[in-house]
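Researcher: I'd like a structural prediction for the single chain below. Treat it as a standalone chain; there are no partners to consider.
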Amino acid sequence: MRQLLKRNSVYKRLNINQLISISCLLCRADTPMNKPVCNLCIQALPIADKHCLLCGIPVLANSSDLCARCVQKKPAFDICHSAFNYEFPVDHLLKKIKYHQQLIYLPPLAEQLSRTLLHHYDGKVWPQAILPVPLHNKRLRSRGFDQALVLARQLVKNLHPYQQMKLETHLIKRQKHTDPQQGLQASQRKRNIKNAFSLTGTPDYQYLAILDDVVTTGETVSEITRLLKQQGVKRVDIWCLARTPV
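Model: Treating it as a single chain, here is the predicted structure.
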């Protein structure tokens, strides 16, 4: 009897998040504690279902597989996978995460990115490791956390039952404190991010995934990609929660 009671107690603790209801962070409807955004709101988010097959920017439903820019010139990276288009309310949620430390919004968004990746890589070779875009130490101190690193850890946890991913956090360093890319013109973004990163050693990988919360013009991830490929990395995929229509 004692063992049965103990087992029941453990079971209840493990399922407590499913039994207690809270208000959905978006619509305020009841939702289990382990799902802070309800299923209806998740389904209503702007999922990136029609996009350029290389750079990942949203394109019209009747458009070709590649955007006009990729037809003219392929990006430095090999492909970009995003969970969502950078539209309301995803843009609002990402700002809450990044600038207001509302990390409770991150798991439901990361869950959709996990589904996107599992669908794409089904039967294909996965990258050898995830490389989150690093913050400069000055930005890290002011913000208090690295959103790309937090996202990477959540993603590794989500993918673990299906694919064990290595998290690489020491290969690349942000050596230059840059202005925020948001609000800069495309040409300014390129100058701003140039030589912002450096490698701490020779990469021991042939295939990597660079992870960031949002990809806009792609200059940040392209700069890192060029650095990696110059040192022998053969393929670089980009993973992000949201992709903006450049």
